[in-house]
Structures are given as structure tokens and as C-alpha cells.
Amino acid sequence: MKKSELFFSALQVPIDYAMIVLAGALSFWLRGAEEIKNIAPLNYTFSPRQYAQILLTVAVFFIAVFALDGMYYIRSNKSTGKEIYRVFRAVTIGLMLIVLGLFFNRDWYSSRFVIIFGGIFAILLISLSRISLRALQRFLLIKKGIGIHRLVLVGDNKICEGIYRQIKKRPDLGYKIVGQMDKISIETLQKIKNKTGIDEIIECSPGQVKIEELYLLKEFCLHNRITFKYIPALIETTNFKLEIFLGEPMIEVKNTPLDGWGKIIKRLFDILGALIGIIIFGLPMLIIYLVILIQSGQPVIFFNRRMGHKGPFDLYKFRYMKKEYSHGSQFSEEHNKRALAFLEDLIKKQSIKDGPVYKIKNDPRKTRIGAFLERYSLDELPQFFNVLKGNMSLVGPRPHQPIEVEKYQEYQKRVLTIKPGITGMAQVSGRSDLSFDDEVRLDIYYIEHWSLWLDILIILKTFPALFKKRRN
User: Fold this and answer.
1) Would you say residue 361 lies in a domain?
2) How far is CA 13 from the centre of its chain?
3) Statement to judge: residues 269 and 157 lie in one domain
4) For 92-106, 364-378, 390-404, which range has the lowest pLDDT when averaged over its residues?
5) Which residues 6+ apart lie within 8 Å of 20 measured at CB?
6) Same domain, 378 and 444
7) In this predicted structure, what is the pLDDT of residue 467?
């Protein structure tokens, strides 16, 4: 999902709200005009301030109706006529619900003139604003290339040729063909991705591809956060969306609900949660900072290199290891080499976990205060600032170090397709006692079944999980 698409979709909400308020204000002003009052005297005593309070509330109600009616779907390519029809339908539904409410309680507001003309003005203003917004988005797309979807077509048949011709004829669709292949070649796709980038891949050769090849293509797309679409009857999956694209039935494999509005909602939730976390744990963090500083000096917070959804980043942690064993971007290259060499030796001798992720038993690198901090995950409190920065989320797969990620099997790389989290399903289901395969299984479930409510449940379960006994 392109940032420009998210931006324009999110922008529709405040603009729609403003247009509804403006429509209501215009209808109220028009009803109060002398010419109208001479024809039909006023039969209500609402002051402008009272009306404004009602109007601001009603506008929120209309936004909710719009959302439920699908007015805020992201990347909608509907025609202008269909867009106006959707506005007309949504406003009409909202007006009918308001009229139904007034039938039971006429004290709310009794001017039919204001209600009817408010609806007419809302349809006109919202339609005009959406047409203008779409025109701006289309201009940026065609003239500036902002929001363009880089597409690779895979297949050698008339269906593929037809899609290719129509995309070339219609730049307003928002696609740019960056590659066309007769057969699936992951190596070739990787070269295209490195050179130009890929946003979508369409496999349009029904019945001509081996399941094994198609599976590899699907995994390549999921691991690289590329939208994968294909002609029906190729892969069985429960996580898909069926659509008609340029006259052809097509199935899109869905990676996660964290596309589109899910991404916006989760980011807002992360920012709010991180700010609350910093306020609540501000004093404990200050105390921990001073204790580490007095006991072993600087650096108190070290930048631990981890792999996230967009590559390596610095994860902030209170330093729980002795300085000579700590490694991160604030240490010299020579220091990091020595620390990592010692770590590799420890992994070979004392790791109690199988697979790419290690767990050191009786870790000799910890300081006295560090053992306590890690025991209760207090060393991770600075990661609230990672969340504010945008390279982590409150909830998600735990980020691992590059030396661990290098050992991932192909299917395990799926956990790198969304932002890593401070806590996650693995942390509330067994913390570090889980095998890595179980951790991946839980993280993939989270990726495919994300919801805001699931995030809230995981956060609520995190606190009691901190006090469960772990292997040392």
C-alpha cells in the first residue's frame, strides 16, 4: 500500500467532516434568511450555539455511517459517477436514520427544511471535494509518478497480453509495468526488485504453472511485502480477496490486515500507547538510568542492532551487560568484533535453544543490576522511543539480531514483513522458553489475524507474563 494512497484516504475523513459541518451551517443560514422566513416562519427556537453543538455531533454520526458503508476503502478505482452515487447513498442512509430518530423524539430538532437542505448541500459539497481530491491524486500519479504501482506480469498468453495493453493505454489506473516474464524466475524477480522495485506481481497463466513454482513466487511476494495476484484455480488459501481486474477474475493473496486502514489505526495506537508508557514508566526509567550510571558508567543505553521490517535498525535497551561485552552502533568496530566473537563462543558452549535464535544459560556478561533488569524485561523500557520513532510497534514479532536472521529458513522470514514489537504473541505465550518454530508460528498467526483488539489483549497479558519463571 502506497503512502500517498494512505494519505489521501486518511485525508477524506477530515474533509468529509468539514463538508458535512459546512452543509449544515449553510442550510441553517439559508433557513434564517428573511426571504425564506417570509414564506415559512420559523417554528423552532434553537440558537446558533445550540445548533452548532448538535451539528458537530451529527457530523461524527455521518462519518461513522460513511465508514460502515465502505466510503473509505483504500485504492478505489471507481469512476466519478459511481463515486457520486456512493456519496448520495451514504448521505441518504444517514438522513433516513436521523429522520427515524426524530420520529421518536421531536425535541432533538424539528426543522425539516434544515435537514433536507443540509442533506442536499452535503451531497454536493462532499461530491465536489472528492472529485477535487481524486483529480489531485490523479495529477500526482500521472504527471509526477507519486503513488505509482510498479507491476511485473508473469505469463505468456492472451490474458497477459490483454492486461499489458490496457495498462499501457490507461495511465490513470496507476500502474507502471517494470517487467514481463514468460515463466516464474525468482532470480530475475530479485534483479528487477533491486533495480526498480516491485509493488505487485500478477501471475496470469492459469493451469500452466507447477504448484511448487507458484508457492515459491507466493513466498517471495510475502517476504518482500509485494502484492501477489493470480488467476483463480491456482492456489488454495483462506486469506485472499477475489476481484475483477481489467475484465479478468483474479485472486489476491492477503498478507495481513495491517494493510490500508489497519496500518493507520495501529500507528495511531502505537503513538498514544508509547506516550502513555513513557509517562507511566518515566520515573522508573530515570531511577534505572541513575543506578546503571553509578554502578558501571556510560553508556547507560546501548543501541543493539536488530532486523526490522525495513532492514537493520538500532533497538534501544538499558545496558544490562558489562561494557566489554556490549555491542552496538555507539561502540567502535574493533570493540564490536571482540564482543561478537565472545558471543559466538558463548552460543556454541552455553546456548539452550535450537535454531537460529540463541539463549545463553548462566550468561557471564550480565552485570548485577543487569540480571534483574532482564529478568523482568525492564531493560526494554527505552523501546517506547523506538515506537515513537516508527521503527517498532507496541505489539509485533520480536526483532532479532542480524547474526540470528542470517540463519532463518525461508518461511521464517515472514516475521520480517511487519514492524517488530516490544511485546507479542510469543512473549505472552511462553516468553523465551518457546522454541523458535513455535515463536514463528505464533507470529505468523498474529500477522494474518491482526486486530486492534488483539493488540490490546496481548498488552494486557504482557504484565503477568513478565513474572513467569524463565530458564536462566
Assistant:
1) yes
2) 18
3) no
4) 92-106
5) 58, 59, 62, 63, 122, 125, 126
6) yes
7) 58
Confidence of residue 274 (pLDDT cuts 50, 70, 90): very high
Q: Quick check: 319 and 293 in contact, CB under 8 A?
A: no
Final residue before a domain boundary, out of 216, 231, 253: 253
Collapsed DSSP state (helix, strand, coil) of residue 379: helix
Within a domain: 17: yes
Q: Determine, yes or no, domain membership for 115.
A: yes
Nine-digit cell string for 402: 542480524
**Cis-peptide into 364, omega within 30 deg:** no
219 and 355 together in one domain: no
Which position has the grid cell 488483539? 454
Task: Show which of 126, 144, 162 is a domain's final residue.
Answer: 144
Specify the pLDDT at position 320.
86
Same domain, 133 and 209: no
State the pLDDT at residue 234. 41
Query: For residue 106, what pLDDT is reported?
Result: 57
Range of the domain at 227: 149-253
Q: Do 2 and 140 form a contact (C-beta atoms < 8 A)?
A: no
Average pLDDT over residues 446-452: 89
Question: 454: which DSSP letter?
Answer: H
In this prediction, residue 110 carries a pLDDT of 58
159 and 103, same structural domain? Answer: no
The 10 Å CB-count burial string (b at 16+, else e) for 121-133 is bbbbbbbebbeee
Is 125 part of a structural domain of the chain?
yes
**The three three-digit cell numbers of residue 121, written as one number:** 448541500
E strands within 410-464? 421-423
CA-based torsion, 112, 117, 120, 123: positive or negative: negative
pLDDT score recorded for residue 76: 58
Residue 252's nearest CA partner among 283, 274, 273, 231 is 231
Q: In total, how many domains does the chain have?
A: 3
Residue 235: its pLDDT value, please?
46
Q: What is the CATH classification number for the domain harbouring 248?
A: 3.40.50.150
State mean pLDDT over 232-249: 64
> How many residues would you count in the chain?
472
**Do 269 and 163 fall into the same domain?**
no
Beta strand pairing call for 149-154 and 200-203: parallel
* Coil/strand/helix, residue 100: helix
Q: Which of 272, 280, 289 is nearest to 379 (CA)?
A: 289
Question: 0.70 exceeded by the pTM?
Answer: no
Round the average pLDDT of the chain to a whole number and report it: 83
